[in-house]
Design a protein that fits this description.
Chain lengths: ~400, ~400
């Protein structure tokens, strides 16, 4: 399996002399370490032993209330998860049976495939372009399934600053996606870990918000929203959540009970302490840094990458996507790049059904400007050399 | 489904004027709150942002090393889990296919059934008596399966102070269980959350230890061991682990990657701080308290329960199991008991294939002596009334 080969190669890149654009790590220099220390202490003062006791599967009520208020829904529509990865797993477990059609972007988030795979989905790739999912092509696919007497069980997508491409779905396409999936009876899983990290352009409503407006409120929504504190606070506490219709939340509660009983009580309480006082300023710092680093990376690519190489221009998030001439296989390129002490993730594993041999993902979140300069220069040389 | 009815009834019992022997909550008054506060701070001093960053799926290496050393194995045989419930889920996902035979005790831990159910097991109940699993009956079952050209995929059991019965499997039966399952090629999942909480009698080797000795070391073991910090430190950090053969651990790593990426970094580091300095004394305090409370409960049952009611005599853990005359249905009894402001869990849901209508589980871990006295007296009256 190619993805495990890549994992082996990427292990090498953990040595400190390799500049890695491979990982999806948030910049640790911005983590609010002192605020977490203070919040941990405050939580133990306020709740005592209850902060360390078993708690409800649904999650810490004040945190669910805060999330619900922000989204204009009630806590009954919010389930806390142990990282958004758990949401993907449990939604897969709840919805996907052996052979069920699951629509995913080409390319899509690799971790979602890892979550869904054990449940035996039959993936169908959705074509994408610079604006994300191609809605004309999707409508043809959905109609084709319907004519064949089938339907898609789930459509998974990352509308904001997608992992791996950094692309964002336009407002018009969002509206059409919500309408199309409602019409064809397809549940949508909207994965939105990066939505708050927009460093340029206008914020767009989530698919979930659009569905609330058009489908008769939170219990009529066919869109499930997955949010996370990993990229806007810290990832190491593993706190995330899902918003969905009440009946779906109740099934998720049952699934989560069997999966880990509940998300750590202490961690949920710490996050609750931070969402009001710490998170807003934290998000501003993160956006400023990532926006600057994305600019640096794109400038360096312009300076050092040969002709015939193109890349996406993300408006937020942590990733951009590079397309090389067809003659280049990026898995082979990675070996050469690692020799020059620079790393990326080849694009192929992000395609559920193959493709993308000449693509690669770069993360601009965790390398500093100097590293970006040296790393992109080294990568440019590697590509130039590979082109002959 | 009867278990959701029971859950609804038990929700009522969360009001403070109900004495609940229903939950499996560790005694919060013993939680080392100040030690956790100190450990959290120490961890942030020592690791800084790394304590809040993504970390490896396998788990925090110093914690895996500590666990491995104690068990005479290497960290390659240890996987950290987000609560032992996650271990049950991922082992179920890894091993159980639709229709596979899974052997469980009658009665067994309800949470294990919840974890396994989504994978479609065909449960076979193992008969039990005061000494736990009946090995003669099991040998007949295994031979019968073999003759039918089938085999059991997994045997799940709790050898120490079982949940729900409080029973402990004898050394002789442990040896025979390890030998039998090796001979018939059955993987054993040994769930041991309470093993350190023995308040009377001699400690016995785990099935895993016996398998290490008889099956050629840690990579030859057909026993998977599931351990937890929930009952010996605190449950709200959700830290547990699995010990298994290397190839099995590598599959579990992959399954866990799709399930929650990794257990919270911060929590694993906090637990690592506590295992040497805090946990040993903590275990002594917990054992002393639970041992005393078990004694109190048994004395009160002797004083207040009518003739024809029997109960197990646990040597550790948190639970004991009560068998009432056949004429009593404990689900109906629960409604009457709650009217008298006392709660328990009816026994029926702990049986994978039915049975146990006249049994119930009592937890002696979290009620104090006064509550135990009043609660058992009220329960005794409820039973007496129900008997005529």
């Amino acid at each position: 399996m190619s993805s495990s080969v890549i994992r082996e190669i990427l292990k090498v890149t953990q040595s400190p002399d390799v500049i890695s654009f491979a990982g999806g790590l948030p910049a640790p220099e911005l983590f609010p370490v002192e605020a977490v220390r203070q919040a941990a202490s405050t939580v133990l003062d306020r709740y005592g032993a209850a902060a360390l006791q078993y708690s409800t599967t649904e999650g810490h009520l004040p945190l669910r209330q805060w999330l619900a208020e922000r989204a204009g829904i009630t806590p009954d529509h919010v389930q806390i998860m142990t990282g958004s990865q758990q949401g993907l797993d449990l939604i897969g477990k709840m919805l996907i049976g052996e052979g069920d059609v699951v629509l995913v972007e080409a390319p899509t988030y690799l971790g979602a495939l890892q979550s869904f795979n054990p449940y035996g989905p039959a993936y169908t790739q959705m074509a994408t372009d610079e604006g994300g999912i191609d809605l004309d092509a999707l409508e043809v696919q959905l109609a084709g399934l319907q004519q064949a007497g089938r339907s898609a069980k789930l459509l998974y997508c990352v509308p904001n600053f997608q992992n791996p491409t950094g692309r964002t779905l336009s407002l018009e396409r969002r509206r059409r996606l919500v309408e199309l999936t409602a019409r064809f009876g397809v549940v949508v899983l909207e994965d939105d870990p990066y939505g708050s990290l927009r460093f340029t352009g206008e914020a767009l409503p989530s698919l979930y918000e659009l569905a609330l407006g058009s489908c008769g409120g939170p219990d009529g929504s066919h869109v499930i929203y997955s949010g996370s504190f990993s990229k806007v606070l810290v990832p190491g506490l593993r706190d995330a959540w899902v918003q969905a219709a009440g009946p779906m939340i109740r099934k998720l509660v049952q699934a989560k009970q069997g999966a880990d009983l509940h998300t750590p009580t202490f961690n949920q309480m710490i996050v609750t302490e931070l969402v009001e006082e710490v998170m807003p300023a934290q998000i501003e710092r993160v956006k400023a840094l990532y926006g600057a680093r994305a600019q640096t990376m794109m400038a360096q690519m312009k300076a050092h990458f040969p002709a015939g190489v193109s890349h996406t221009v993300p408006e937020g998030g942590m990733f951009l996507w590079v397309t090389l001439p067809e003659s280049i296989d990026t898995t082979a390129l990675l070996l050469k790049a690692v020799e020059r002490r620079v790393a990326f993730v080849p694009g192929a594993p992000f395609f559920a059904l193959g493709g993308g041999h000449n693509t690669l993902r770069l993360s601009f979140s965790s390398a500093n400007d100097g590293q970006i300069g040296r790393g992109i220069e080294a990568l440019g040389r590697t590509i130039t050399e590979a082109l002959g």
